[in-house]
Amino acid sequence: MTPAVARSAGPAEHTAQTAAPAGWEADARARAARLEELLGDPYDNANPHGLHTLFDADARGVPPRLTEQLLADTGLGAELVPLEHGGLLTRADLLAQTLRPVFRRDVGLGFSLAITSLSAASPVWAAGTAAQRRHLADLLRGGGRAAVLHHELAHANAILRHEFTATAAPDGGFRLDGRKDVILDAARARARVVYARTDPARGPRSHSVLLLDAEEAPGGGERRLPRVPTSGMRGALYSGLEFTDFPVPAGALVGRTGEGVPLALRTLQVSRGLVCGVLTAAADTVLHSAVRAVTTGRGGPLARRWTKPLAGVFADLLACDSMATVVLRALSLLPARSQLAAAAVTYVVPDLLRENLEELTTVLGARRFQHRSPEYGALDRLARDLPLAGLGHTGAAACQAVIVPQLRALAERSWLAEEEPPPELFRKGAELPPLDYRLLGVAGGGDFLSASLVGSAARLAPARGAGGRHAVLAELAEGFAGELRALREQCRTLPAYGATRLADPAVCVLSDRYCLIAAAAAVLGVWEAQDGTDPFLADTAWAVLALSRIGGRLGIPVPHLPDGCREQVADELVRRYRTGRGCDLDATLLAR
C-alpha cells in the first residue's frame, strides 16, 4: 500500500495551475519532454530506467521500483488530477502527450501508474462530493494510487469477472460482500473505487460507486487474495480482494445510489480514448526496432522489399494517432457528443495495432525472438500486452454495445444531415476548454466524425479527375462518403433499439464498417487542418496511404497509389528514426 505523502508543487505544477488555456499545450509538451529526458536513452544498458532494466523486471515478475519512484517523484500523479483540484490535468489529449514517454517504454508500468488510477478517479471527478474529490486529489498528488474494482460484464475476462454486492445498512451506509481475483494494484493502492451491485434486478440502475480508503478501513471483513498469474502486462501487479459483511460508511457513496452504470459509460470515454492515444507510443517503439533491423549498417533509403510494410505501418500509426487525438480533443470541445467516437476509436485502434505487429514480424524476422533485447524485444511485449490493454473480446463487445443501439437513429437523424464540428477539433495549437467530467454525455449526441467526412469530401470534390495526388485523395474521400451513404440506407432498415441484437453478425458488420469510416474521417480532418508547419503532414502522401489501407480493410474500391507516394512515407520514417523522432503526428523528439 502506498501512503499519501505531502509534496510541494514543483515549477511545472505552478505553471499549469496559473497558465491560461493558450499555454496549456506548451506546458504539457514541456513536461513530456522533461519526462522523456529523465527516463533517458531506452537502449542504454547502463540506464536504470532503460528497456534492459524494464525487461529484466518483467521477466522476474517484479515492478521496476526505481522507475516507479522516479515517476512518483516527478509528480506523475498530479497529471491525473484536474486543474480545479490542484493538479495538472487540463485536457485529455494533453494528458496523452505527457504519458507517452512512459508507454513508449512499458505498457504495464503506464497502466499501473496512470491509467488504472485515472479510471478509478474518473467517477469521483464526475460525481463525487467536494470532500471526496479533495481527498483523492491529495492522495494522487502525493504519489498514492487508486484501484478500480469493476462490475462484472458478459463474456468477461479475468479482470471483469465477478463483482461485489453492497446492501443498505441501518446506519445509512452499506455492507459489502464479494470477491474479485484479478485487480491491478489491489495490494498497493490506498484508494479503492468499487462498482458494487446495489439492486439485484438487471438494468441501468443496478450498481453504485463506492470510494474506500484502505488506511481508514475498519478491522475485519477484508481479505487480500494472493497474486494470480495473468497473461499480459506484469502479473506481479495483479492480486485480488474479498469482502465479507464489510462496513462502508454512507460518505463513501459517489453520486447517487444506482448511478454506477451511467457513471461508467460517461467516464469510460476518457480512459478509452487515452489508452488508444498512448498505445500508439508503444507501437512507435516497435516500429523503430523494425527500422533498426533493416537499416543498421546501411545508408540511403530502405531496401525496396521493406518499403511497403514499413511505410504502411507508419501510415497506420498516423491514422491511429489522428483518431485518438481527435476523440480526446472532443472530450473538451464536444463533451456531450463524444461517446460514439470514443467507442469507435477503441474498436479500431487496437485492431489496427494488432495487424501492424503481425506485419512487422516479417520485417524483424528471427530478431523478434530476442525477447529480452532492448533493441528488438518490444514487439513480443506489446503483442502480449495489447489484448489486455484493449480488454480483448470484452472491450470490443463493450464498444459494439455503445455503437449498435445508435445505428438506426444515426441513419435517420444524423448521417448526411448533421453540421460539421468546429475546425478547432482537428487543429494543433487551437485553444480548447478544459476537460470537465460533469459535462460528458451518454448516447444521442449525434456523430461529428461522419459530418466532418461529408464536409471533407465536398471540399475535395473539385480535385477529382484533375490528376495527381490531390485527385487520388479526393477519390478516396468520395469513396468513404459513398460508403457512409450505403451504410445509412442499410441502418435505416434495422429493427428498433430494443429488438437490435448485439450478437447478430450482420449488425456487428455494420458496426465494423462505421468504425473504419470514422477513422477515415479523422485522417481527412487532421490532414485538412495542417498549416504547413510540418511539410510532411501537409503533403497528401501519408493521408493517401493511410486512407488506402483503411479502404482496403473496408472493402471499398481504392485507386492506385500515386508514383512515389509510398516511398515518400518510407523516407520520412527513416529520417525520423535517424534523427531520433517519434512516429506520431508531433514527430516527438526522443531521448537518445
Number of helices: 19
DSSP, total strands: 8
Q: What assembly state would you assign to the polypeptide chains in this entry? A: single chain
Overall 3D shape: globular
Entry keywords:
single chain; 592 residues; alpha+beta; eight-stranded mixed beta sheet; 8 strands; 52% helix; disordered N terminus
Structure overview:
With 592 residues, the chain is of the alpha+beta class. The chain contains 19 helices and eight strands. Strands 1, 2, 3, 4, 5, 6, 7 and 8 form an eight-stranded mixed sheet that branches. Strand 2 and strand 3 (174-184) form a beta hairpin. Helix 10 (339-364) packs antiparallel against helix 11, helix 14 crosses helix 15 (469-491) and helix 14 crosses helix 16 (505-528). The two termini are 34 Å apart.
Report a brief summary of the structure.
This protein is of the alpha+beta class and 592 residues long. The protein has helices at 11-18, 21-39, 51-60, 65-73, 92-103, 107-127, 130-141, 260-295, 304-333, 339-364, 378-389, 392-403, 407-413, 448-460, 469-491, 505-528, 535-538, 541-554, 565-578, and strands at 146-149, 164-168, 174-184, 191-197, 207-213, 222-225, 238-248, 253-254.
Question: Strands, helices and their partners?
Answer:
Elements (H helix, E strand, L loop, with lengths): L10 H8 L2 H19 L11 H10 L4 H9 L18 H12 L3 H21 L2 H12 L4 E4 L14 E5 L5 E11 L6 E7 L9 E7 L8 E4 L12 E11 L4 E2 L5 H36 L8 H30 L5 H26 L13 H12 L2 H12 L3 H7 L34 H13 L8 H23 L13 H24 L6 H4 L2 H14 L10 H14 L14
Parallel strand pairs: 1-4, 2-4
Antiparallel strand pairs: 2-3, 3-7, 4-5, 5-8, 6-7
